[in-house]
Amino acid sequence: MQGSESTGDKPARREETLGESIRYFCVLLLAVFAVRSLVVEPFNIPSGSMIPTLQIGDFVLVSKFSYGYSRFSFPFSPNLFSGRIFGSEPHRGDVAVFRFTRDTSVDYIKRIIGLPGDHIQVTGGHLILNGIEVPRTSLGHYEVLDENNRLLSGELYRESLPGSGGRSPVVHDILKLTDDGFANDTPEYVVPEGSFFAMGDDRDDSADSRFQGDGPDDLGFVPMQNLVGRAPIVLFSMDMRHPAWQFWYWPTEIRWNRFLHSVT
Length: 264
Prior knowledge:
Layout: H1 18-38, E1 40-44, E2 58-63, E3 95-99, E4 107-114, E5 119-123, E6 126-129, E7 132-133, E8 136-145, E9 151-161, E10 170-176, E11 189-190, E12 195-199, E13 222-223, E14 227-237, H2 250-253, E15 261-262
Subcellular location: Membrane
GO molecular function, one term: signal peptidase activity
Main location: membrane
């Protein structure tokens, strides 16, 4: 006798159409774009201007919502609006990513030293903020290679930068190579409204707001609109002494002690 057709058979699997695949792919791209634009974005540290706080080869995770959003918060910086929305002023001592004043396609990362109305000067290599010398304590000799394999040899200091908005002082390390040159004996700068003053923690190897001329590397005061976000943590780090294609060196170049390292 012919068996009856089973009622428990599973329905045939529906094949995914090309249109659905494209839709899923577009949704995925949109989600990545939204996270990268509005939440967090990784940045690689290519130079030594923030040594010792950040090392060459660090990958920092940048909080995009820390200061609100400007056109520079989005990939390709579309000119959708001016100024900032949901904006909040950064705090003195923040390590921040922002767009270079002379070429807004270039990302910079520095420490915010001065806010609107602050008076800033460097005298004999010492940072003066609002007429008071910023305290620092020597931690001894420090040596490191920069991105050009050049030896940076100097004194490591622990600096206590006055906080802003009622916050405690920001205690962080800086590197001093010399007390000579323009960057160590500057005029007094007064930070204008709507801008901030940024410096590298490698105080003698940083093109920063102390340089206010017309040179191609002069940063000057940075408009608040140029802020991209705050860098609170090092996600991971690689020494990268060898070319990237030499993958067999990768395990030896990972700086395990910098995984999820807090940035202060």
